[in-house]
Amino acid sequence: MSRHFIDQMQYSVDVSDKPVRIISLVPSLTELLFDLGLEDRIIGVTRYCVHPGHARKEKTIVGGPKTFDFAAIDALQPDLILGNKEENYREGIERLQQQYPTWVCDIHNLDDALAMITSVGQLTNKEHHADEIVNDIRCKMARLASGKTLRVAYFIWRKPYRVAAGNTFINEMLKLCGMENVFADLERYPEITIEQLKTAGPDLLLLSSEPFPFKDRHCQEFAELGVTASTRLVDGEMFCWTGSHLRLAADYFMGLNEEISARSRE
To answer: What is the set of domains in the chain, with CATH numbers?
Structure first.
């Protein structure tokens, strides 16, 4: 027997009463599945599924989020595949949808992320566990209190420089932190020039650990280019992972705000 679902892309998906052969095509979804207590039902993950640390050692690798290994997936014969509009690629998802129950999330803000967690709980008969995670995230995020709004630019790439702009989950997380994204009027992940950065005049540059792994040496780079804003390295997972990792993100944001406030008083 199967159950009927509508995913966040408004696709119709029929899923068995209890899916027992689950593939995750997204690192944050893999972590969520483990946190829901589904370790014994997960059969495939991507090479980038780093949480929990043993996931890639114990489960079959089915390629990367944008490079599916269809032969590996076919060999596993999954009864549920979980994907994401932004992190996966359309052609690959459409191919999988023709053969397997494939549920795709589309996340723009915190409400979307929490709805996704609830839905995955329903798909896998783990509603109670999903509700606990959602309630924990809501409570922690509600404690985020912003003081003076800080104007920031959030960098995701170098050569060329790219930032997270409007219509991104990262932008929504910056808002929760009480930060104003100086490039929020742009769309998605635009390339910017140093002159654009100077004109925007942020107070702080946030250099993310992913997808480009910014390091301490890159902070000085901006000063050498005549940018007067302060710089800080940040954990990219906290700003863009949309599953159960959000429980950690709220605590991280509170610590980040406290550290930035302390630095501004020095």
So the answer is: 2-107 (3.40.50.1980), 150-265 (3.40.50.1980)
Provide the whole-model pTM: 0.94
* Residue 238 in tokens: 């906290």
Return the structure tokens found at 196: 């654009």
State the Cα–Cα distance between residues 192 and 260, nearest whole angstrom. Answer: 25
Distance CA 245, CA 28 (A): 7
List pLDDT tens digits, range 57-90: 999 999 999 999 999 999 999 999 999 999 999 9
Residue 199 makes CB contacts below 8 A (sequence gap 6+) with: none
**Residues whose CB is less than 8 angstroms from the CB of residue 214 and which lie 6 or more positions away in sequence, other chains included:** 155, 158, 207, 208, 233
DSSP string, 45-105: E-TT--SSTTHHHHSEE-EETTEE-HHHHHHH--SEEEEETTTS-HHHHHHHHTTS-EEEE
